[in-house]
């Protein structure tokens, strides 16, 4: 059962999901209202509602929102219109696609703007341009986006179809019929078979296991791969697999409405005039997998969108990048800039027409719509000119911008998909960009929220090392040199084939342990005998092969290790355990199981064999050491050294101990134990006290070390991402101790940290006090050791040039195991220069200093404490603490809590977040974050289907962010800066020309040139820039993670950079227009022909504009490919080809103008003069900036150009040593199967159980006296990061 605090947590978090038809409420209001509901629920039910039954249960109080279900009665259930089992995650159908998609697209401000512009161009009186100039680009944008949206939705339709077409066996008229999942309805009785996914949330009716038990794996729900036990009512279990009885089952279920509480279910079953209580232990949830159970039957309670899995999946949100949001803001500013120019031209036109224009009506007649009165005529003309200039200068808000952005993102997505360095050969899985709209956001990630199980770890527990009687086993030592050899893929594992029950996948490399087993070392035999006896694992025969069912993967690994070394756990009954030791059978009488819980942190069994009673115990090393008998000798101290060594390597440790018991003393203890077990009040406390009495004076046997295998490259990836300034939070459903262990293994937690806080209070006041204490500790450390190590350490580790070496800067870095990015070849310049022109990674936050906002703190928050941390009154205090911490680990959290934590950071920090996971329990977190990354792991494909990007291994995340994300952001920013520059340089020419044409909305350029300028003449070079541009190589991006820092503060494109680009464009347009105008005004050719005509001026300005654009993008390009050369120089050539083709072949109005201009020396002089005036300031500014305030990327390029490849920083160690003594124990996070075993409910009927007891005395295998422990073998000194001078 859940603790009271966990009940509070689940009640609070499930608020919004329990009332599906109510509009979403603010989270804070929902929390406060539900606290009141929770209090009312705990009140006793009215007496007339209490069900009378010989079983004791909590009455379910029905309400107006209750759900009533009759089994095998579709007609009755149809009246309530419950959701069917059909799943739909797609957005469109064939009929609704066009209207809905157009509606969505026109919600984008730019699209709506161009639609209005197109309508204006259809009015001849105000339009000086043909509507085609706007219609073609607008239709192209809408069509391209529609195709992309249709493809994405088609993928969702395919995924939905795959799930809905899974097969399920349903009872129809007493016979099993195979149907699609989508056809299953509430009230149907379905049959599940072993290793099959549960189709819907069902009430368990019967199973193949004794007493109606079944085992499930809930990895899709909570990420845990250990088995969980469910048990149906004994009354329904009697139906077995009789289809006739199950088909006639007509029980009525009254239960709660659909909600997202995974660990809570309340209801009653009425059947045969009796009422039965229903709770979560009788429910199998959709997404679970049936394990080690041949078959089971259940009645569907929730189906489809009402299932708890779907209730926890969260809503799919439309995600936009920060650049998209900035562009929307900038476009509003551009529109106001356009309107201001139009207003200016309108006023100027009215003044000109009133002062000058009315006298030239013979040459410039007014339109018939214009009144003859000079004043009103000037006003009307001015108003019409306003709309005319809005059309003429509309290219300042280019629709081609959105076409280009979509094309660039689409191409970048393919570069991610085609990256062979993110291809996982083992499973044949490549990285995949499942969306094409978020690529540049990958270069701005500030917070990563990661699942643990299956994301950081492999979900594989392996018996790695052990210490027995003071002797350490597991290291492979070179016999000649005495050095410890590193175990890798080429290492040869031991051969266990002598054991017929060995497992081929089990690997151990130290031959000394196997030799000790074979020669009969009593200490080693006692050690493995304890592992084979002290557990709650259940054996099972599957296809003639012995398999184990364990609630904890740790227990399974230990029993498996004993099995492979020849100590095979065979079977158990409620009163006996049978093992096989080196081929000889041993049967032990099981007297008592002292089960594990999170308070005791240990478990024990009491066994009798040959008249001798022994207690075997295993548990956390600190708990076991407190209960050891005071003895002489150095076994305890040596074992403690080994414990520290194992913990330092990130292994999960358990201590093993035993003690003999006297018959009389045990009988007295057993009597008191029986009385405590029957107590009506404080039963758990009394049992704990009884357990304490007997678990004393223990004798140490040894310790085990299990490796919860990390995925390859996890520590290095986390270290590099931390160096890039990214905060990493781990949100896991696993228990606290396991999460902390993994934190140390992957270097999120280290001994170099000032302090690791643990917040595990069960009440609001407790959590408040703990947070206050954490905050005070942070203030004290920051006061006496601000932003770095102790002064003495800093002085000792400071190099002559002022750079801080890696060993002394471990408090200051985000990744203590990695050297800071102060390179040997550029000490002072790189250490103290701004990372980029606008200030490197510095932010305006007072508690953030450079790339590190902590003095090395970490915090671990438990799930029931997190409920209070997210309370509105504690939210600010919680944020104040966690934002000062380098690492944050939240354990025992629900899927909805994960999403709430992500939303909290998004809301409070306005930071770009990324969530990564591999199970259905991560879906809500993935949907809540700005970027969702799914890992194709062992927990199914739910996370991948909900994600924006999918990868096969966590280590690929650093390449996805530091390479593709950074490149995408860099390219997009460079593209936008150039795009706005060239468009302002092009459009504002019309504004300058207005001063010389009476503000009549006359265009400088040919209409065709205006139409195709952004589509043909300048589109391909900038697209090549946005797709292929690189400032540094991928290897350099990974070697120097600090290159990622500019994205955090949007340094490469922001409002300031936009203003710079637009001012540059306005200056260019001014020079482009005034110099040719001054040259050609009243100009004559050598042969006396007049050069000052409008078409010639337009051709000259257009040609110099194209040359300027080509030169500018050539200067901006740092990574030249064939595509860049073809597009840049090809666009310049295409301008002349298309101009001649249009004017000569089609008969354009500007025919001959460009030809005349090119044949005159005046043009070439004008072009050279204009380009010099435009380019000299640009080149000078860039050279001066690079020399005075060069970015890190520029310095790296300079280094590589002049001195060869840059040296790579030191890569982090795969295993960081932990010097402090701490428990690394690992165990099941729930109670074991102890009660079920001793009660006999979990057992199959054993025909000859009594005969087994009678044979106890006759079987060999007595306990042996323990000889003195042999001296440990000499070993070469080990080296780690603390002893080796890097």
From TrEMBL:
Protein residues bound to Mg(2+): 451, 453, 918, 922
Membrane-spanning residues: 132-151, 326-355, 375-403, 979-1002, 1008-1028, 1058-1078, 1090-1107, 1119-1142, 1162-1184
Keyword annotations of the record: ATP-binding, Magnesium, Membrane, Metal-binding, Nucleotide-binding, Translocase, Transmembrane, Transmembrane helix
Record bears the keyword ATP-binding: yes
Active site as annotated: 451
Cofactor dependency: Mg(2+)
Ranges of biased composition (kind: Basic and acidic residues): 790-799
Listed GO MF terms: ATP binding; ATP hydrolysis activity; magnesium ion binding; phosphatidylcholine flippase activity
Gene3D superfamilies, per the entry: Calcium-transporting ATPase, cytoplasmic domain N, Calcium-transporting ATPase, cytoplasmic transduction domain A, HAD superfamily/HAD-like
SUPFAM superfamilies: Calcium ATPase, transduction domain A, Calcium ATPase, transmembrane domain M, HAD-like, Metal cation-transporting ATPase, ATP-binding domain N
UniProt domain P-type ATPase N-terminal: residue ranges: 69-134
Main location: membrane
InterPro entries attached to this UniProt entry: ATPase_P-typ_cyto_dom_N, ATPase_P-typ_P_site, ATPase_P-typ_TM_dom_sf, ATPase_P-typ_transduc_dom_A_sf, HAD-like_sf, HAD_sf, P-type_ATPase_IV, P-type_ATPase_N
GO-annotated biological processes: Golgi organization; phospholipid translocation
Root EC class: translocase
EC code(s) of this entry: 7.6.2.1
Alphabetical list of PANTHER family matching this protein: PHOSPHOLIPID-TRANSPORTING ATPASE (PTHR24092:SF190), PROBABLE PHOSPHOLIPID-TRANSPORTING ATPASE (PTHR24092)
UniProt name for this protein: Phospholipid-transporting ATPase
């Amino acid at each position: 059962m859940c603790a009271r605090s966990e009940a509070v947590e689940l009640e609070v978090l499930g608020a919004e999901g329990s009332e599906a038809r109510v509009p979403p409420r603010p989270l804070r209001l929902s929390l406060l209202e539900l606290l009141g509901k929770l209090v009312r629920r705990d009140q006793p039910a009215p007496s007339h509602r209490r069900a009378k039954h010989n079983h004791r249960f909590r009455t379910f109080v029905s309400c107006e929102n209750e759900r009533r279900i009759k089994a095998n009665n579709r007609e009755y259930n149809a009246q309530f219109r419950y959701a069917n089992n059909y799943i739909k995650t797609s957005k469109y159908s064939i009929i609704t696609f066009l209207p809905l998609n157009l509606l969505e697209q026109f919600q984008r401000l730019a699209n709506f703007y161009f639609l209005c512009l197109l309508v204006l161009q259809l009015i001849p009186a105000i339009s000086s341009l043909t509507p085609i100039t706007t219609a073609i680009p607008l239709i192209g944008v809408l069509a391209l986006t529609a195709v992309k949206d249709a493809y994405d939705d088609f993928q969702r339709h395919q995924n939905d179809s795959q799930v809905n077409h899974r097969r399920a066996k349903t009872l129809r008229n007493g016979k099993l019929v195979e149907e699609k999942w989508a056809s299953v309805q509430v009230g149907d009785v379905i049959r599940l078979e072993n290793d099959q996914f549960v189709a819907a949330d069902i009430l368990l009716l019967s199973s193949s296991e004794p007493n109606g038990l079944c085992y499930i794996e809930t990895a899709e729900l909570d990420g845990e791969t250990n088995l969980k036990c469910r048990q149906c009512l004994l009354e329904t279990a009697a139906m077995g697999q009789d289809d006739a009885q199950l088909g006639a089952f007509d029980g009525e279920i009254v239960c709660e409405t659909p909600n997202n509480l995974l660990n809570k279910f309340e209801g009653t079953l009425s059947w045969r005039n009796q009422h039965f209580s229903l709770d979560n232990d009788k429910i199998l949830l959709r997404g679970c997998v049936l394990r080690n159970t041949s078959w089971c039957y259940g009645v569907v309670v929730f189906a489809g969108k009402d299932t708890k899995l779907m209730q926890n999946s969260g809503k799919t949100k439309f995600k936009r990048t920060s650049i998209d949001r900035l562009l929307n803001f900038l476009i509003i500013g551009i529109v106001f800039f356009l309107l201001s120019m139009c207003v200016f031209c309108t006023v100027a036109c009215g003044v000109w027409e009133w002062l000058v224009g009315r006298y030239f009506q013979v040459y410039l007649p007014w339109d018939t719509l214009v009144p003859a009165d000079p004043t009103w005529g000037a006003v009307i003309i001015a108003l019409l000119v306003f709309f005319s200039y809005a059309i003429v200068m509309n290219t300042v808000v280019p629709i081609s911008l959105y076409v280009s952005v979509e094309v660039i993102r689409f191409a970048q997505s393919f570069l991610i998909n085609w990256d062979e360095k993110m291809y996982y050969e083992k499973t044949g899985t490549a990285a995949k960009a499942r969306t094409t709209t978020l690529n540049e956001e990958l270069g701005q990630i500030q917070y990563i929220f990661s699942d643990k199980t299956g994301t950081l770890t492999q979900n594989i527990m392996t018996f790695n090392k052990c210490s027995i009687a003071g002797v350490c086993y597991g290291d492979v030592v070179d016999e000649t040199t005495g050095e410890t050899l590193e175990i890798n893929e080429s290492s040869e594992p031991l051969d266990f084939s002598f054991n017929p029950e060995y497992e081929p996948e089990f690997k151990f490399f130290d031959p000394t342990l196997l030799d000790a087993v074979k020669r009969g070392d009593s200490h080693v035999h006692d050690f493995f005998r304890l592992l084979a006896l002290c557990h709650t694992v259940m054996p099972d025969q599957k296809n003639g092969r012995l398999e184990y069912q364990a609630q904890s993967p740790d227990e399974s690994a230990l029993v498996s290790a004993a099995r492979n070394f020849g100590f095979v756990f065979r079977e158990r009954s409620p009163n006996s355990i049978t093992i096989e030791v080196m081929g000889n059978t041993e049967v032990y009488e099981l007297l008592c199981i002292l089960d594990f819980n999170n308070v005791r942190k240990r478990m024990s069994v009491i066994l009798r064999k040959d008249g001798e009673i022994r207690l075997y115990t295993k548990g956390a090393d600190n708990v076991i050491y407190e209960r050891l008998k005071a003895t002489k000798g150095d076994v305890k101290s040596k074992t403690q050294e080994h414990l520290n060594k194992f913990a330092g390597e990130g292994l999960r440790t358990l201590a093993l101990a035993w003690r003999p018991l006297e018959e009389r003393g045990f009988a007295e203890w057993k009597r008191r134990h029986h009385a405590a077990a029957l107590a009506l009040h404080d039963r758990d406390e009394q049992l704990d006290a009884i357990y304490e009495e007997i678990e004393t004076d223990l004798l140490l046997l040894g310790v085990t070390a299990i490796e919860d295998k990390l995925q390859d490259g996890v520590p290095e990836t986390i270290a590099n991402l931390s160096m890039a300034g990214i905060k990493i939070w781990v949100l896991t459903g696993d228990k606290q101790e396991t999460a902390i262990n993994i934190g140390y293994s992957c270097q999120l937690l280290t001994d170099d940290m000032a302090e690791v806080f643990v917040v595990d209070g069960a009440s609001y006041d407790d959590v408040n006090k703990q947070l206050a204490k954490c905050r005070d500790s942070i203030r004290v450390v920051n006061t006496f050791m601000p932003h770095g190590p102790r002064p003495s350490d800093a002085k000792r580790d400071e190099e002559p040039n002022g750079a801080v070496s890696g060993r002394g800067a471990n408090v200051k870095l985000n990744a203590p195991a990695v050297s800071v990015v102060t390179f040997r070849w550029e000490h002072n310049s790189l250490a103290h220069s701004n990372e980029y022109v606008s200030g490197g990674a510095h932010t305006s936050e007072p508690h953030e200093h450079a790339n590190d906002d902590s003095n090395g703190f970490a915090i671990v928050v438990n799930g029931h404490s997190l409920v209070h941390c997210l309370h509105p009154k504690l939210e600010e205090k919680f944020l104040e603490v966690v934002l000062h911490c380098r690492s944050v680990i939240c354990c025992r959290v629900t899927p909805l809590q994960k999403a709430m934590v992500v939303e909290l950071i998004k809301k409070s920090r306005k930071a770009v977040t990324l969530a990564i996971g591999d199970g259905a329990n991560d879906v809500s977190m993935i949907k809540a974050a700005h970027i969702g990354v799914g890992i194709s792991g062992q927990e199914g494909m739910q996370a991948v289907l909900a994600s924006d990007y999918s990868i096969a291994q966590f280590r690929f995340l650093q390449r996805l962010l530091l390479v593709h994300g950074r490149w995408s952001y860099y390219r997009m920013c460079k593209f936008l800066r150039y795009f706005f520059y060239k468009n302002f340089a092009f459009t504002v020419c019309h504004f300058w020309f207005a001063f010389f044409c009476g503000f009549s909305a006359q265009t400088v350029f040919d209409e065709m040139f205006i139409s195709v300028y952004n589509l043909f003449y300048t589109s391909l070079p900038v697209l090549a820039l946005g797709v292929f541009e690189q400032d540094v190589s991928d290897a350099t991006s990974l070697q120097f993670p600090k290159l990622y820092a500019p994205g955090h503060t949007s340094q490469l494109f922001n409002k300031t950079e936009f203003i710079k680009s637009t001012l540059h464009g306005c200056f260019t347009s001014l020079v482009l227009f005034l110099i040719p105008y001054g040259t050609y005004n009243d100009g004559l050719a050598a042969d006396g022909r007049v050069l000052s005509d409008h078409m010639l001026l337009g051709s000259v300005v257009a040609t110099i504009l194209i040359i300027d654009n080509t030169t500018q993008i050539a200067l901006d390009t740092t990574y030249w490919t064939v595509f860049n050369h073809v597009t840049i120089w090809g666009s310049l050539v295409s301008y002349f080809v298309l101009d001649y083709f249009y004017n000569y072949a089609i008969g354009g109005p500007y025919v001959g103008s460009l030809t005349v201009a090119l044949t005159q020396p005046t043009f070439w002089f004008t072009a050279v003069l204009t380009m010099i005036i435009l380019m000299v300031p640009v080149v000078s500014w860039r050279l001066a900036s690079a020399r005075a305030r060069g970015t890190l990327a520029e310095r790296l390029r300079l280094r590589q150009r002049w001195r060869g490849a840059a040296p790579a920083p030191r890569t982090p160690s795969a295993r960081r040593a932990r010097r402090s003594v701490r428990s690394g124990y690992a165990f099941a996070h729930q109670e074991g199967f102890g009660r079920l075993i001793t009660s006999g409910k979990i057992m199959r009927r054993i025909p000859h159980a009594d005969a087994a007891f009678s044979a106890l005395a006759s079987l060999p295998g007595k306990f042996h006296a323990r000889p003195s422990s042999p001296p440990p073998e000499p070993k070469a000194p080990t080296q780690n990061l603390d002893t080796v001078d890097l």
